Amino acid sequence: MAPSAQTHHRSHSLLLFQKLLNLRDSASPLTLILDTLEQGAGPLLQEFINRGKLARSKILFVSFTTARKPRNVDIFIKARGKSVTALITEIASHCAPVNSQTPKDTATNSQKCLIVVDSLNPLASKEPHVLPLFFGSIINPFASLVAVYHNDVPLVLPRTVNEYEPHPLTLLSHMATAIFKVSSLYQAVETKRAQMRSLREPEWGLHEGREGVLVGLRTGHQPEGLVVEMEMRRRSGRAVAERFILSPSRGGAGAGLSLLSDHPLFAPAKDAEGGAEGEMADSTFNLGLTEKQRNDREGIVLPYFDAQTEVGGGEGGRILYDMGREDDFDEEEDEI
């Protein structure tokens, strides 16, 4: 890829991710975040909330697992134990457009609303068939939904669910206009190092197969940040995919954002002269040919070269074989 094209791709990817984080121009009415026990979606959710607060949007936090009201949240709704109908009514009451006489005034006076759901697993486990109704009832031109689904939490479906119905995660992935899959930067770095050394890739979390308590992410000298794998579905149906590194904010400053390919370990390898990976590297022996060697190679007569030139007049290929003294000629086999 030429430097100009690479720079354009890098800028376009960062601007697209920024647009999704800012929820500008209703870029994604339904954003699905997939996390694991090893790497939660908390930092990414907080970044959505902080940017929504800067845009003067009303922030609604629908809690199924969160005990305390997060920072910069305007309305905190406890959803556990409530029916889906009651939950939809409560959310819609806070995100209803401002009443006015004309549609133009409504578009001007209505405050944008960001709805954050900390876990979709309880809804998907209890009543998976109501997920389309839940999303369709609370999403409107002035409200955007950001919801989290825990990938490795066991999902026990009710007995009323037909075995031929799609899995709730499949249904959520189909309805979402943008999907963010978060993972640990430390784990991504260790996996990359194993690949570079042709070693077995390490397993994490439940895939380790260890008995006992799940330890989770370890603290210490580890790279800070998380890997965010973005997949945005455009209206044309084309999907745009890219991977980023989101660094946590410090001292009230915004979170750092960069492409995963800009990380030193994930960047294309370069030799001492600045050549990219795939170019001829310096070695102790010369892999090229001199002019004399090239001329000698062209003068070599290949085996059966005479047979190729004589038969090559449109008569097809033919094998010419001279029998030796040790060969046993069989007339019957020759007739066959």
TrEMBL record:
Q: Which domain of life is it from?
A: Eukaryota
User: Chief localization class?
Assistant: cytoplasm
Query: To which pathway does this protein belong?
Result: tRNA modification; 5-methoxycarbonylmethyl-2-thiouridine-tRNA biosynthesis
Which residue spans adopt a coiled-coil conformation according to this UniProt entry?
Answer: none
Q: Where in the cell is it found?
A: Cytoplasm; Nucleus
Compositionally biased intervals (Acidic residues): 325-336
The alphabetized list of GO BP terms reads:
tRNA modification; tRNA wobble uridine modification
Renumbered residue ranges of the record's region Disordered: 315-336
User: Mind telling me which InterPro entries this protein's record contains?
Assistant: Elp5, P-loop_NTPase
Keywords, A to Z? Cytoplasm, Nucleus, tRNA processing
Q: Which GO terms describe its cellular component?
A: cytosol; elongator holoenzyme complex; nucleus
**Similarity field:** Belongs to the ELP5 family.
According to UniProt, the name of this protein is Elongator complex protein 5
Organism phylogeny: Eukaryota, Fungi, Dikarya, Ascomycota, Pezizomycotina
